[in-house]
Design brief:
The protein is mostly helical and about 160 residues long. It contains six helices and two strands. Helix 1 packs parallel to helix 4 and helix 4 runs antiparallel to helix 5.
Length: about 160
């Protein structure tokens, strides 16, 4: 019987290709584009996108580069507004809210579709949790109703 070489513990881990460490405007632009068009986190982008630096490097870039920090902040604000838009679309979409049934004599009638409504509620709730994490001062449930913009109505 031939003896196979022992595996090193480090061999079980797959090494990623070398990651960039120096600030790159192109990478910063790509990160912000992904943030604006998705619900993804910075960690998720760093781990799953090819050619991305690790998340510690990205936080260092944010700390050291004011331009990237502004761009990142705007991307996060856009992400928040997109999540709010998603919530409104889901809440306003009536398709599937009712199901048509028939009586014994064949007369149609409509009933609420609890499965569809529960799913819509779950989708909105998930997005609201993301909003609370992304902008806790603005969307925290414990502070009362959601305030969509910074203009405050007169309480009278």
């Amino acid at each position: 019987m031939s003896e196979q070489p022992k595996k090193r513990q480090n061999q079980s881990r797959i090494r990623k290709a070398s990651r960039p460490v120096h600030y790159s405007k192109a990478i910063a632009d790509r990160i912000c584009e992904i943030l604006q068009t998705s619900c993804r986190s910075l960690d998720s982008i760093a781990e799953s996108e090819d050619g991305m630096p690790n998340v510690r490097t990205l936080y260092r870039w944010l700390d050291q580069d004011a331009g990237f920090r502004r761009q990142y902040t705007l991307a996060r604000q856009t992400q928040v507004h997109n999540l709010l838009d998603d919530c409104l679309e889901i809440a306003d979409d009536e398709a599937g809210d009712l199901t048509e049934l028939e009586t014994a004599d064949g007369q149609p009638y409509w009933v609420s579709n609890p499965v569809h409504l529960a799913r819509a509620k779950q989708r909105i709730s998930w997005r609201m949790q993301l909003l609370t994490g992304l902008s806790p001062k603005k969307y925290n449930d414990s502070t009362g109703p959601i305030h969509v913009d910074t203009v405050h109505d007169d309480p009278k």
